[in-house]
Amino acid sequence: xxxxxxxxxxxxxxxxxxxxxxxxxxxxxxxxxxxxxxxxxxxxxxxxxxxxxxxxxxxxxxxxxxxxxxxxxxxxxxxxxxxxxxxxxxxxxxxxxxxxxxxxxxxxxxxxxxxxxxxxxxxxxxxxxxxxxxxxxxxxxxxxxxxxxxxxxxxxxxxxxxxxxxxxxxxxxxxxxxxxxxxxxxxxxxxxxxxxxxxxxxxxxxxxxxxxxxxxxxxxxxxxxxxxxxxxxxxxxxxxxxxxxxxxxxxxxxxxxxxxxxxxxxxxxxxxxxxxxxxxxxxxxxxxxxxxxxxxxxxxxxxxxxxxxxxxxxxxxxxxxxxxxxxxxxxxxx
Length: 334
What we know:
Blueprint: E1 11-13, H1 24-39, H2 60-75, E2 82-87, H3 93-103, E3 107-108, E4 138-140, H4 155-166, E5 172-177, H5 178-187, E6 195-198, H6 203-208, H7 215-225, H8 229-235, H9 258-269, H10 275-281, H11 287-299, E7 303-306, E8 309-312, H12 317-326
Helix pairs in contact: 2-3, 7-8
């Protein structure tokens, strides 16, 4: 009997998630690149307009495999438990879950406007009522957009945790960005079951997706992207067969200070923010300094502005993550 072909997209519990191994040679090259940058004058970075387009990936198959994984739970009317899905930035998890939810017509929880999250303690909070009249399953599309890391900005998400974990809200799916989840686990330290995500893509999966060729290049891309599909796609067109040239990652600004790290961390923690929202959560950063950081990081290709929200780019994500790790920030587990 022929063996079933290995699946590129696999849903696993977070505890079973595996990152691709980083070869020793890549660690040395990474250290050398930082050393060379430190001892040599800074060079002009290519403009955002000159960067090649990121390869678009389809997550239809990932949505289909999620259907296989969750079908028994979804069709069991007596099971009112929750499913939590953790979505690393640019990983495609959110896109796949959205396709799956649309297929099954899951009722979407309406998130409160972020501008209302920091209202005074005595102001009423927006209602959270995901249960529909026919008791159908519901979906929280992105829990990272339900809070601001500010004094009053956690009221709504705390109430959300209290209701869903008590069972009052019924059967539902909660999607949460991995950086937000790392923070929220500390805000509401009650262990949850059924925590899922997409398995990290190893070199074989990247090859099946056509993102790189050659064992060395595939291993390097898997290590750079940490198995993240979107990051791998962002670098997929920056190689040649058999090339020994390292991937062209964006360079950090020549002058990095606390404000640089605070801005990057806030954007990852909240899965994108407007400038007004950044002002709310970063009162120690002056308005002019915030504007400078946004413009410099944008010029470097590390962040981008999309529909009035600032995000860390897919190409910039590995660089920003390394920056935050070097400065002792609390990281996600992916």
